[in-house]
Amino acid sequence: MQKKVTPLSEFGEFGLIDHITNDFKKVNKETLYGIGDDAAVLDYVDKKVLITTDLLVEGIHFNLVYTPLKHLGYKAVVVNLSDIVAMNGTPKQITFSLAVSSKFSVEAIEELYEGVNLACKKYNVDLIGGDTSSSLTGLLISVTAIGDANDIVYRNGAKETDLICVSGDLGAAYMGLQLLEREKSVFSETSHVQPDLSGYDYILERQLKPEARIDIIKILKEKEILPTSMIDISDGLSSELLHICKQSKTGCRIYTEKIPIDAETCKMANEFNFSPETAALNGGEDYELLFTIPISDFEKIKSIKGISVIGNITNASEGLNLISPEGSFIQITAQGWNAIK
Ligand code: ADP
Ligand code: MG
Q1: pTM attached to this predicted model
Q2: What does DSSP assign to residue 77?
Q3: Distance from the CA of 129 to the center of ligand 1, in angstroms?
């Protein structure tokens, strides 16, 4: 069946904004006024407010050959919510701005906003505005997320002897990306061969549909654990550890065999002759939380499923070290994704 294709010009800017924002329902009391005026109005009474923003550029941050627009909309929102969560905050509002070229249809933008709406519903977030422009080439998306927090956790609070913890597992999103890239090149060379993505649902989902770990900060609160420092893992474990240690003026030790890695990630890495630990350390886009806690909270953290203690914070003079199962020390350096090449 042929998909319906309505050119953007048929709607015009204002018609398009009305059309795509129609299905969004406001859920938070902090949102006094959303879309429709020159600015949105928020009321956080006397709370501290967190704001974060991200820019996503076609061909740099995403590839539309293998990224469905609905997934892209979802992911663009989630990666911003993850930054609010990494401050120990609760996301409440987003703005969503885009520049589109004429190669996009109204239906394509609808699909993108379906993903945005899905993320807003799942995370109880209000879409309160944005901006819409045309672009000469590809698609450009900018999302801003706003939220609040009672106890803000920064990157700079880690202390010597603190335990280093990570949620979920690492490296899967990176191996998912490698699989998509491989199938893309096979497909472009032999267009009659359909991509073979079977058996790799988990790593593909990790790449295409990541989640913000708001469940983790909720359970930490329940267990009365307040992290001393926290960051979300967008650029790989090494890079995030460097951020925490640099800002906290500490060193660290992490143990290779304690890094949580899913079996599917290992299987894919083996196929690529790639070390799964390298995927965890230097891959990116896992959006798990890396945080430190006082050693006195060890018993409490042990009781939480899906959190791994991977090492501890040391004096700055020790540097950042990865300890192999044989006990040798390897210095940790950042080789994660660098936006400015
Ligand atoms: P202005 O000319 O003041 O920038 P716009 O006509 O661009 O206003 O926007 C009108 C309303 O629609 C505003 O509330 C704005 O935040 C919202 N809006 C514009 N573009 C988008 C978008 N892509 N997604 C969500 N809301 C949007
Ligand atoms: Mg505008």
Answers
A1: 0.94
A2: H
A3: 5
Q: Which ligand is nearest to the CA of 130?
A: 1
User: What is the distance between the terminal CA atoms of the chain, rounded to a whole angstrom?
Assistant: 42
Q: Is the CB of 21 under 6 A from ligand 1?
A: yes
Q: Which domains does the chain have, with CATH numbers?
A: 8-149 (3.30.1330.10), 163-331 (3.90.650.10)
Per-residue pLDDT tens listing for the chain (341 residues): 567 899 988 888 788 889 999 999 999 999 999 999 999 999 999 999 999 999 999 999 999 999 999 999 999 999 999 999 999 999 999 999 999 998 999 999 999 999 999 999 999 999 999 999 999 989 999 999 999 999 999 999 999 999 999 999 999 999 999 999 998 887 777 666 666 778 899 999 999 999 999 999 999 999 999 999 999 999 999 999 999 999 999 999 999 999 999 999 999 999 999 999 999 999 999 999 999 999 999 999 999 999 999 999 999 999 999 999 999 999 998 664 444 43
How much distance in Å is there from the Cα of 13 to the middle of ligand 2? 9
Q: How far apart are the CA of 120 and the centre of ligand 2, in A? A: 21
Residue 144, beta-bridge partner list: 53, 95
Task: Say yes or no: CB of residue 73 within 6 Å of ligand 1.
Answer: no
| Residue of minimum CA distance from atom 20 in ligand 1 | 131
Task: Among 17, 32, 56, 97, say which to mutate for ligand 1: greatest number of ligand atoms within 8 Å of CB.
Answer: 17
Q: Please report the beta strands in the chain, taking only residues with DSSP state E, as ranges in sequence order.
A: 31-33, 41-42, 48-57, 90-100, 126-129, 132-134, 140-149, 163-167, 229-232, 251-255, 289-293, 307-314, 320-323, 329-331
Work out whether strand 289-293 and strand 229-232 pair parallel, antiparallel, or are unpaired.
antiparallel
Ligand 1 centroid to residue 24 C-alpha, Å = 14
Please tell me the distance from the alpha carbon of residue 3 to that of residue 293, in angstroms, as a whole number.
Answer: 52
